[in-house]
Amino acid sequence: MSRPYEDFYNRVLDATAVLHIPVKLCAIVVSLRYTPRDMRVLSMFLLNQMAWNAVVNFIPFAENEVFGHVMFYVILYCLLNIALAVSSMFPYRYVAFAYPNRKLRPILIFTLYTGAILSMGAFFAPVYLRWIVSYDEYPLKEELPERSSLICFRPFGMAKNITVLAYLVVVVLVIVTIVGFSALLLRSINKKMGVIQQKILDKHKRILSALIVLASIPVVFGGLPLILAVLTVYRPHTPYASEVCMICIVVMANHSTFNDIAMLVVIQPYRRAVRNRVMKIKIPYRRAVRNRVLKMEIVRAIRKRCCTA
After folding, report:
1. Other residues' Cβ atoms within 10 Å of the Cβ of residue 48
2. Which of 80, 156, 267, 301 is the one with CA 20 to 30 A from 261?
3. Could you give the number of structural domains in the chain?
4. Contact of 285 with 269, CB cutoff 8 Å
């Protein structure tokens, strides 16, 4: 990778991080202030996803090899939790609609989710530790670039195969969970037609449609690029593997911003809140311009009368 190409890539990532911050803050503030009472639990899933996305963008990287591995594992761990946060919304919506008499306590949801997070960390940490290798022990010395800001992984072996396969399985499970529970929820909605008011059914359909849109963004702009990036890591000598991996990283870095914008547009209470806030900001400006025009017209009329007199 040539030096100008690398500099341009780094500037794109810097611009992505700068753009990400105000959009993320706006989405979090709107979600906290304008979520209706009947969407409080669902908003917790959305806030959880946004929180993990925000953490990824603020993780630093260092020239120290050990600290670099720790930070890279934290990034991968955050990506896994984003996948869990996205996929967990659909089982919740299905259980909440299909079994309305079964109350889902927040403490139970929190306990199950925390258990899933800790289980993933307990599984992937030893797998990651087996995959890494120090700079001095890397077997293919002729492929090593400069040591600065570089972390190394085993270029072959069972540890590499298990790690790559595990991440691919996670992406596939997320897609299967989203598609499967969406189909189950649609089936439950169709079954209850005529039993429940059509207004309530339409509301659940709108929520499901919004969730599908919000989930498709992490899958398309996060999951699929992650699969390509993992494949380039698995086959690093494939032509243009580095360039493809770089493009995938840029797309994944921007998926959070796309997701936040989509959330503010797709979910009706958030869209209404943003629209009202924008209108409130614009109204004083319009009034000021209108008053300025009126003052100019009054001045012209006075001057005209004075000249006529």
Report:
1. 19
2. 80
3. 2
4. no
Residue type, 98: A
Position of tokens 């959330």?
A: 263
Nearest to 166 by CA among 120, 134, 133, 129: 120
172/219 Cα distance (integer angstroms): 10
Q: Is the pLDDT of residue 307 over 50?
A: no
> Is residue 85 a contact partner of residue 43, using CB atoms and an 8 Å limit?
no
Strand-pair category, 132-133 with 152-153: antiparallel
Reported for 131-140, long-range contacts at CB under 8 A and 24+ positions apart, including other chains, are 131/159, 131/160, 131/162, 131/163, 132/69, 134/65, 135/65
Domain range for residue 38? 4-266
116 Rama class: left (phi>0) / alpha (psi -120 to 50) / beta: alpha
CATH of the domain at 137: 1.20.1070.10
Res 296 pLDDT > 70? no
Binned at pLDDT 50, 70 and 90, residue 155 comes out as confident
Same domain, 283 and 216: no
Average pLDDT, rounded, for the chain: 78
- CA 136 vs. chain centroid, Å, equals 36
What token pair was written down for 142? 């002729």
User: Smallest Cα–Cα separation from 49: which of 188, 277, 219?
Assistant: 219
